[in-house]
Amino acid sequence: MPGADKETDLTERIEAFLADLKRGGSGTGPLRGSGEMARETTYLLRRITAQARWSSAGDLMEIIRNEGRRMTAAQPSETTVGNMVRRVLKIIREEYARSRGSSEETEQQESLHKLLTAGELSEENFRQHFVHLKANVIEAINELLTELDGTTDNIAMQALEHIHSNEVIMTVGRSRTVEAFLKDAARKRKFHVIVAECAPFCQGHEMATGLSKVGIETTVIADAAIFAVMSRVNKVIIGTQTVLANGGLRAVNGTHSVALAARHHSTPLIICAPMFKLSPQFPNEEDTFHKFVSPHEVLPFTAGSTLIENLFQCFILLRLFTKVSVTPEVINALSV
């Protein structure tokens, strides 16, 4: 039956996405862009909306919540997945309110009251059936996907407001958003970029290669030289994995060192982060924000036999992301 085939195909796609998340977000390596992850999550949620069996907004919200819990549990450190699930749930509520003929402002005022008085009964408001609700929700999700595609360009358009001629800019590792930000500024400004290599993955070398191809003067430095070089830097521009609820960041290792050095030398620190990286999570417990990956980057598997012959036990923890790390006190500007 065609309907059964669609459900089977949808289930297989969801399981494949969950397996991808459990492997760290990519089958080809540990470093995957948050923008790509946000788009894939939204594409999958759109597919669930189109192919899953539901008759009311309440049914659809329950399906999205259940699948969203599975996605976030598969990779708790990938906050963009949960952000996209919450955004789609908001879209469903808005489209349901629009189908009922309620204004968005009225619905928001009612929700504040219901939050305190209605409790579980608030879900009863989403049980009414509307014929065109599915089409409206899918159209709104398509608009969200278009918005996600343009986030990097929107941030890059602000580059000339922050970067001036003959400045020395420092960044750490590789961020696609920061790279686009600097390339946009290079169209009308001449400046020098210093890139911390961000060992052991050394993404900084990839960043430097991309910037040099468009004619930006670029220098790669070791992470240990960050503090020594900071005195001649005019601005620090970095990306981030997540902007936490208290204004702090969760970013790649090495970002904390850059932020503290910038604070010591009173150097402005600018963060380039699209809206989907703003998270309601609060850094209550630091260890839950760490993300550990395979240590083969620093110790290849081929060296294992030699190592075992000389050491009885050896534990290597390679941390990719850490809860910064960067507290809100050291951030001067957030470009979204």
Description:
It is a single chain. The chain is of the alpha/beta class. The protein folds into 2 domains: 2-149, Four Helix Bundle (Hemerythrin (Met), subunit A), CATH 1.20.120; 160-281 and 322-335, Translation initiation factor eif-2b, domain 2 (Rossmann fold, 3-Layer(aba) Sandwich). Helix content is 48%, strand content 13%. It contains 13 helices and 10 strands. The protein has helices at 2-22, 34-51, 57-74, 79-100, 104-117, 133-149, 151-156, 159-162, 176-185, 203-212, 226-229, 255-264, 304-310; strands at residues 168-172, 192-196, 217-221, 235-239, 242-243, 249-252, 269-272, 291-293, 318-326, 333-335. Strands 3-2-1-4-7-10 form a 6-stranded parallel beta sheet, sandwiched between helices. It has a 4-stranded antiparallel beta sheet with strand order 5-6-9-8. Strand 2 (192-196), helix 10 (203-212) and strand 3 form a beta-alpha-beta unit. Helix 1 (2-22) packs parallel to helix 3 (57-74), helix 2 (34-51) packs antiparallel against helix 6 and helix 4 (79-100) crosses helix 6. The chain is elongated. Mean pLDDT is 81; it is low at 26-31 and 310-318. Belongs to the eIF-2B alpha/beta/delta subunits family. Pfam families: IF-2B. InterPro entries: eIF2B_beta_subunit, IF-2B-related, IF_2B-like_C, NagB/RpiA_transferase-like. One of its GO terms (cellular component) is eukaryotic translation initiation factor 2B complex.
